[in-house]
Write a structure and sequence with these properties.
Layout: H1 26-36, H2 49-65, E1 77-94, E2 97-98, E3 104-107, E4 113-116, E5 124-126, H3 132-139, E6 144-148, H4 153-163, E7 167-169, E8 178-182, E9 190-210, E10 214-224, E11 229-234, E12 237-240, H5 243-262, E13 268-275, H6 283-289, E14 297-303, E15 316-319, H7 327-334, E16 341-344, H8 358-362, E17 368-372, H9 394-407, H10 409-413
Parallel strand pairs: 5-6, 6-8, 10-13, 10-14, 14-17, 15-16
Antiparallel strand pairs: 1-2, 1-7, 1-9, 3-8, 4-9, 9-13, 11-12, 15-17
């Protein structure tokens, strides 16, 4: 990959002498990136010891920088648990007759299922001309019994395989339950009973802070440190290293923490978070969002896949959800006059605003946006074993971190405050 010229020095954007400016250290950035993407961490899959080793490494980095643990948190690891629930036994009666177990599929909450037509949900019938996949998607998050015509056997088999993996929840009580039965309607009576087996898995975000003069105004810099782990081998390589996705963003968060720590006490309080389990349901950012008042977060810089130059050329980066707040225009104004440019996400059809950890905070009204540079529509390394450090443009990576630091200037200083995201605009 051809190398690009790094962005020009951005010291002119700050109201202190250039000699006092902190610097983005490319060597430090690459060191953190290389550790996270090394084969020894086996792809950092959430729910694995490899991800926890990555978390410990990042906690050590935060300590070396001199970040403080957030108030009420012991150390930098924000520990929590996810509960995996699977069906242990299933019995279904439909119209007074037992259903062949091969024709029943369930996902259960921790309490299991004990439904009849008097106590359970009203059945949803999917006839021969209906759409079982749509009915299943519509039922998510609620207790539901779906009875589908045998013509939907192929879709049923796909859903049954998915439900057999069980469900995950951050609550030990679990969530909702769904039962899908392959049978012809109508339904005059039914009984569904299923027991549940629950397993608890520890997880951890890594969070540090630089207290500012305004304790109740927080600027959040984040990325997810997990990736896809061990996958099907390609030419003997089975490790999804995730150098770009998202060791690049995580290394950027660490380097931004170093940068802002060297800059002295900020006006607004800064939080630096490396989230876990983004690739497995966004559990890290969901737990994080429950630990503080989202109204205190004035902006979220979520950094995703910045190791490759964008399609619009060197020194450009795009921001998801550009029209959801004026976060993007504020960053663009902050780097005006430099070689760097921020612009709107060029891939709106991919719904990228909803596909990273920013979405969790945006749904709470936070101006939460992801910053990326990778041409995701043509990137051949995305979620492949080839996503390794050698495929990245490291000068571009460092230049992008410099630009994010500069773009954040007026928000960190309190000169600019992005408008809040209106939750009613977040329906896809």
């Amino acid at each position: 990959m051809p190398r690009i010229r790094p962005a020009v020095a951005l010291a002119v954007l700050f109201l202190v002498p250039a000699c006092a400016q902190p610097q983005v250290d490319q060597a430090s950035l690459v060191r953190v990136l290389s550790v996270l993407a090394d084969d020894s961490l086996r792809g950092r899959a959430a729910f694995s010891p490899d991800a926890m080793r990555a978390a410990d490494f990042l906690a050590d980095e935060f300590a070396a920088i001199g970040l403080e643990p957030p108030a009420g948190q012991e150390g930098y690891l924000q520990r929590f648990a996810v509960y995996s629930v699977t069906a242990d036994s299933v019995a279904v009666m439909l119209n007074g007759r037992p259903v062949d177990p091969a024709n029943a599929a369930v996902s259960v909450s921790a309490a299991g299922i004990d439904w009849t037509q008097e106590t359970g949900p009203a059945p949803t019938l999917v006839g021969r001309d209906g759409n079982l996949m749509d009915a299943w998607r519509s039922a998510r998050g609620t207790d539901a019994l779906i009875v589908a015509d045998p013509a939907h056997a192929e879709s049923f088999a796909r859903i049954r395989g998915f439900l057999a993996r069980g469900s995950r929840s951050t609550s030990p009580e679990g969530g909702s339950s769904t039962a899908i039965v392959l049978a012809a309607g109508p339904v005059t009576s039914y009984a569904v009973r299923a027991t549940a087996r629950t397993a608890e898995t520890p997880l951890a975000n890594v969070v540090g802070t630089i207290p500012g003069r305004r304790a109740d105004e927080i600027v959040l810099f984040s990325a997810h440190y997990d990736h896809i782990g061990i996958v099907r081998p390609v030419e003997g390589d089975s490790i999804g290293n995730g150098a770009n996705d998202d060791a690049s963003g995580t290394a950027a968060v660490v380097e931004l923490a170093r940068y802002f720590k060297a800059a002295g006490r900020p006006e607004r309080t800064l939080l630096f978070a490396a989230f876990t389990a983004e690739e497995s349901g966004g559990y890290g950012s969901r737990h994080f969002s429950e630990q503080l008042d989202p109204d205190r977060i004035v902006a979220m810089f979520n950094i995703e896949m910045i190791g490759k130059p964008a399609v619009e050329g060197p020194n450009t980066a795009w921001i998801t959800g550009w029209d959801r707040s004026d976060f993007g225009p504020i960053l663009a104004a902050a780097v005006e006059g430099t070689e760097f440019r921020f612009y709107a996400d060029p891939y709106p059809e991919q719904n990228l605003f909803y596909r990273s950890d920013n979405a969790t905070l945006a749904r709470l009204g936070v101006p939460a946006h992801s910053i990326s540079t990778t041409p995701i529509d043509v990137d051949t390394d995305y979620h492949q074993v080839s996503d390794e450090v050698g495929t990245l443009d490291l000068e571009h990576l460092a230049a992008t971190v410099r630009a994010i630091a500069a773009g954040a200037r007026t928000i960190v200083s309190g000169e600019a405050t992005p408008t809040r995201v209106a939750p009613e605009t977040l329906e896809r």
